[in-house]
Design goal:
Largest sheet: 12 strands, mixed
Strand content: 25-35%
Helix content: 25-40%
Shape: globular
Structural class: alpha+beta
Number of helices: 8
Mean pLDDT: 92
Length: about 290
């Protein structure tokens, strides 16, 4: 068995495309994925796996590793080889100084992931759920008293969207602040359109936002946030139902979202609105300097 790991740059994606049937563009256009942070594994000359690193500029910068190994290449040392290559890369990279931790997420089943990661010092830290809602009528809803809404397309400033995200999620696990440039980049890439971002105001106060997106046939409520001072008024439910209705006007596909397993309030809201857990994703992490 001959195993080779190659770095794949944006202009030479043939091998990456052979492993990843879709969304390869989203890897190399992700602002947190450096151009030299994507790897493909070849087994006897055939591409069988890929992995990449996202470098995330949080208060304590950290890295997320993502990847996939084809079923026929599993239990043959491919995943460990990719992990070793990217761990070495993280120690040597110069794009984001001060990295403190590395994290890896994986969909269930988790037995093989635990067997690979936990002997290397990774510990399970979080569970996330992919939730799905079939196409169905949206429950009756309305905006809380005094709240008015408008989309980016209707004139809401991109800077307000950025502020709403940062204030709403500042207390979340592994929070990575957004910038106005990040928001503008999402709009330019085409997955998110100006009419897909809704801002909520109470008078002149920004109180929440919702963002929908389309990835191929996937219809997703990608982010939804309410600033701490405005919580408990039903604004989150209204933003959620706006997102469902907006996505269902365009297609009969199911609507999806991701939620952190420890967020019990959000889970109750989504289940009451017709969502059910479809897949479970675990997150493991360790300090980067573990030998």
């Amino acid at each position: 068995m001959a195993l080779e790991i190659r770095t794949i740059l944006a202009h030479d994606r043939t091998l990456l495309d052979a492993v990843l049937s879709q969304d390869a563009d989203r890897i190399h256009t992700n602002e947190h994925v450096p151009p030299d942070a994507v790897r493909v594994a070849l087994l006897d000359g055939e591409p069988v796996a890929f992995a990449f690193a996202m470098l995330l500029p949080a208060e304590r910068p950290w890295a997320m590793l993502r990847g996939f190994v084809k079923p026929e290449a599993r239990r043959r040392g491919v995943g460990r080889a990719l992990l070793d290559h990217l761990t070495d890369y993280l120690h040597a990279q110069r794009h984001l100084p001060g990295l403190t931790e590395v994290a890896i997420g994986a969909w269930e089943p988790h037995d093989a992931v635990r067997a690979l990661l936990e002997p290397l010092g990774y510990t399970h830290q979080r569970t996330y759920w992919r939730m799905r809602r079939p196409h169905a009528p949206v429950p009756a809803w309305g905006w809380p008293d005094g709240v008015q809404v408008r989309t980016i397309a209707a004139g809401a400033p991109v800077s307000d969207w950025n502020d709403a995200f940062n204030v709403s999620f500042a207390d979340h696990y592994r929070f990575v602040p957004s910038t106005v440039a990040d928001c503008e980049r999402l709009l330019q890439q085409g997955d998110v359109r100006p009419e897909d971002v809704l801002l909520a105001y109470d008078g002149d106060r920004l109180v929440g936002f919702a963002r929908t997106a389309r990835h191929g046939t996937l219809r997703e409520i990608e982010t939804l946030g309410v600033v701490p001072a405005a919580r408990g008024r039903g604004l989150g439910r209204a933003l959620l139902h706006w997102g469902i209705a907006a996505l269902q006007r365009e297609a009969t596909d199911e609507v999806t979202l991701m939620v952190e397993g420890e967020n019990a309030n959000a889970l109750r809201l989504y289940e009451a609105s017709g969502f059910a857990i479809a897949r479970t994703r675990g997150l493991w992490a360790r300090p980067l300097d573990v030998a």
